[in-house]
Amino acid sequence: MFFKIDGFTKKPEIKEKYDLVIIGGGPAGLTAALYGVHGGASVLVLEKALEGGQMNTTDIIENYPGFKSISGEELSRLMKEHAAKFGSEFYSSEVIGLEFREDLILTKLDDANTIKSKVLIIASGSKPKKLNVKGENEFTSKGVSYCATCDGHFFKDKKVAVVGGGNSAVEEAIYLSNIAKEVHIIHRRDKLRADKLYQDRAFSRDNIKFKWNSVVEEIKGDLKVKSLVIKNTKTNEVYEEEFDGVFIFIGILPEISFLPKDLFETDEYGFLITDENMLTNIYRVYAAGDVRHKEIRQIVTAASDGAIAASNAIRQYLNL
Q1: How far is Cα of residue 319 from the mean position of the Cα atoms in its chain?
Q2: Any bridge partners for residue 121, and if so which?
Q3: Rg of the chain over CA atoms, in angstroms?
Q4: Are residues 91 and 166 both part of a single domain?
Q5: How far apart are CA 11 and CA 21, in angstroms?
Q6: Contact, 239 vs 218, CB < 8 A?
Q7: Rounded to whole angstroms, how far apart are CA atoms 38 and 146?
Q8: Chain-wide mean pLDDT for the chain?
């Protein structure tokens, strides 16, 4: 959040020390902030982009209890307002490093600030996994996208591909089907992994088509995406087909670039391993949400992680 003062934009003032610092302002971080201030802690939430995290890129949310249907942006706003109402503070900056002392954790920011805290909750979330094929980096934001709600409007009445078969891929394909002329779901298997609700909706759309047992081998174009080179993994047939854009939803990677290398225990993909209280292998450091190793990554489970982490932090280390 920024404030306008005499025509200039100024960041809010922050203290040098808090009971609890939370890295990440998605549903896990915002819920942790709410439970932290309710427990009597001074709380600072650090978010490099928008509070709400990936919720902001979700068009419609229909599986969060209490809301039959709500936009990701609206739920993000409501969560932040709820946490702020009870005293949580927010600061827009990117974390670039951590330092651990006997009784304090130092969180270093890209604007040269260093924040001290007794406890840290890492709720930094995840980022889209890339295909790592020729042309992907070259045409990112030129027809290659990882967010349909962000970029879908550029493809009105166009032909687009969606790569992936999970909930995110199918949800975004359904969203795009309201904008694009044709949406082709390219999936490496012969059936979708998405929940039945989303599968049924996708199969019912006349302009959503499916390329089973298929992978993208190259993205081609000039100033923007023009075509995809696709391989059928059953027949080994390789062919080129014209597309105006491609949306990639094949998984996620944890946002942990700021963590000291080899200090935290992670799984094979880099997601932080915690106990049932969300505590990592590092004293007074918790992890919550998509950044941690878990089976189900949903808004409701991220919120649960945040509540558990903050509640245990207060009981175990803050003595409030």
Answers
A1: 32
A2: 22, 286
A3: 21
A4: no
A5: 17
A6: no
A7: 36
A8: 93
Host H or E run for residue 83:
helix 72-85
pLDDT of residue 5: 39
Collapsing DSSP states into helix, strand and coil, what is residue 245? strand
Per-residue pLDDT band for 11 (boundaries 50, 70, 90) equals low
CATH of the domain at 112: 3.50.50.60
Is residue 175 domain-shared with residue 71, that is, in the same domain? no
Q: In what order do the strands lie in the sheet with 182-186?
A: 144-145, 245-248, 159-163, 182-186, 208-211
Residue of 8 and 235 predicted with greater confidence: 235
Residues 116, 184: one domain?
no
Predicted TM-score (pTM) of the model is 0.82
User: Which of 206, 229, 248 delimits the end of a domain?
Assistant: 248
pLDDT tens by residue, 278-293: 999 999 999 999 999 9
Residue 53 lies in domain:
3-127+252-318
Strand ranges (DSSP E) for the chain? 3-5, 8-10, 17-23, 43-47, 89-92, 95-100, 105-109, 114-122, 126-128, 144-145, 159-163, 182-186, 208-211, 214-221, 225-232, 238-242, 245-248, 252-254, 285-287
> Do 116 and 258 belong to one domain?
yes
Residues taking part in catalysis: 147, 150-151
Tell whether 220 and 260 lie within a shared domain: no
The domain tally of the chain equals 2
* Tens-place pLDDT, residues 196-245: 999 999 999 999 999 999 999 999 999 999 999 999 999 999 999 999 99
Mean pLDDT of 293-309: 95
215 and 188 Cβ atoms separated by less than 8 Å? yes
Both 74 and 115 in one domain: the answer is yes
C-alpha 165/C-alpha 171 separation (Å) is 10
Give yes or no: residues 234 and 263 share one domain. no
Residues 123 and 136 in one domain: no
What was the pLDDT predicted at 314?
A: 95
